[in-house]
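Deliverable D5.2: sample structural annotation.
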Amino acid sequence: MAQSWPNFRYHPRVAPRREYGTGGISWTGATKVRLRIWVPTADGRRRATRVVRVPDREHGGRGAAKAELEKFIAEVTERSSTPVPSTVTVAEMLDAYLVHCKRIGRTQSTIESYGHAAARLPTTLGAMPLTMLKPHDLDAFYGDLAERLADNTIRQTHAILTAALEQAIKWGWITDNPAKGATAPGRHKPKRSALPLPDVAKMIAAASAPRKDGADGDVVIAMAIAMAALTGARRGELCGMKWSDIDPATCSITIERQWVPGKGGQYLAPPKSEEGVRSIVLGRLGLDLIERYRDIQRELLRHEPDGWLLSYDAGVTPMRAKALGQAITDLGKGLGLKVTTHSFRRVSATQLVAAGVDVDTAARRLGHTKEVMLESYVLGTDDRSIAAAQTIEERLVAQGLPLAEILAADAIELSER
């Protein structure tokens, strides 16, 4: 069938909004035009618009605007000529959206989180034709999820469904987004207090203490807990630390990577921070702790430790982020404590703010956003970063975490190697 194109006739500037057959060009600025097309539908017609930038009208803008309109009409015509697949189900729509996300280069962790959300769909909802999906169906789905999942997880599921349905509209599969009429849980989070420092010390002691069967204590887990409280690093960032990241000259450790759990294991990714790679200044006690850990690793391995900081095989294999989280949770349960790796991050943030460290310095140290730390902040400096390192170490010690004794030779009995 021959394509019916609009009649393009260019008009003087005094009448820039006149229609060109089925398409229109409106100049909204010296180099900006709005393209407008009337698209026939089963119940009438709808208007498709697009705003593009072109050269000035006196310098080729008119021809460029015409070319953009022709391209826009071709795209809309191709999309409109494709029959609406009314048999597409909700599950099929989500599968197509995942493929689309991979094509446009979304990160592996993002795609996997989208896949987890898709897997939460019950069979009946997944088999429902997309054109039959209503806000009430999604509200009922969220209500079922509330019985076993946290509000934040349900909000994430809602956000993913909303984005996927928006893409379905662009594909011409539906005309409205039912997710916009659904209601996800609110963001009313109960405030959680930080883990008391004596409990942190108790966990480190329990991890590093020799086992009843005569085996050595787990100094790797003990070190992970101490570094988590000291630096506020996330679990993936802790597992991503290397010996080479420690710089005694600047008294700092660089956070430049993290291990992210994924299908079939874990993979390396940049740190989840506002500014990407960051350096955390350490004080004397923090550097002494690292040196004691180095001495223990050197004695156990019979050579200088290298590679990954938290490792059981001389730095060759890093500790898995999920394994670290599970080990800490299990250790806490054995002591009657409800704790995760994030608990120590909260400890570090709480102590920094309580000590009067300015919000910008504290936020940069933790790789957080200032908005999350506090609504307002003051500018931090390198001098304050050094003061922050000394402050948090002194407060950790004063409130029950004996940094000077952690991993000390007389506190850990090493079996004969």
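Annotation notes: The radius of gyration is 29 Å. The chain has three domains: 19-81, 90-181, 197-411.
The annotation will be released with the project's public dataset once the embargo ends.
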